[in-house]
Give the backbone structure.
Amino acid sequence: HWRLTPEAAQVDFMRLGDGHPNAPNLGWPPLDDLAWYQPSARLHPLATALAVHPQDRCADGTQPQPLLAIRPYGTRGGKVVYFACDEMWRLRRGYGERYYRQFWSQLISYLGLSHALGSEKRFTVYSDRPRYRSEETVVLTVEAYDQNYTPLTAQDTPTLTGTWEFGGDASGPSQPPTQRTVTLNFLRPGIYEARIAATGAGEHRIRVEDPVDHGVREVRFSVDEASAEWRTAVRDVGIQRSIAERTHGQSFEAHELPKLLETLNIQPVTEQQVVTRSLWATPASFILVITLMLGEWLTRKRIGLT
């Protein structure tokens, strides 16, 4: 039986039931003994154990083995829930789907709300990629909601305006970064979008003002200088013919492929290969041996020899 830690009472998805007489604290129904769990060397420094093994310890000999733990991840409110066993189906024992569905629905809500709510989740600015080549298209998207997390509409805010800054790091401290104005058009409720060309190698930053609280949200991405092949995607016929002349070759276009085959003047080449096989390993030898054995057997049967 796992043991719930005091920290479990502070997590919403760990509170089950509604005062069932056989349920322990937090409303958890009695589980069968867990037949298996994955041991851990230690608990992550940022993690919090919600359920632990009653006897087993981690590598340090003092910390109980975590069976269910949570921890934050990243800087945007991400969350991780860790299970050391795969036997949560035991919540169905004696109660059916009641506690099982309650646990998983509360867990999904716990994980999902971290991405849907929060002061920085109501107005979010992001690009489709973190890195671009010069002259590629940057798709800038803004997810915007009001104080009640209702998507903004075209009647509320038809467009959003942002400031695009780039070039300051590459130009040096004496020259300020170049600034441009970016307009994001209404795409659908809660979504605004702009498509801009990535110009200028280096780090870029786009800042967009929230029309609700007038705060500023920003997104950063980098632009790499495109190589000569990417800057000119059209084949240079002049360079092609010049290389052919300097190397004493010839230049052909796609419609001249039959002429290329004639110019190559390919002649058939005959190759000879000698293979040595043992006489006894040939099919003829095998057939001869079988024939002699069959003939000898038939002869003995005809004259009555055993």
Remarks:
- The chain has six helices and twelve strands.
- The CA atoms of residues 157 and 211 lie 8 Å apart.
- The helical segments are 98-116, 168-171, 228-231, 237-246, 257-264, 283-302.
- Confidence is low (pLDDT under 50) at residues 19-24, 169-173.
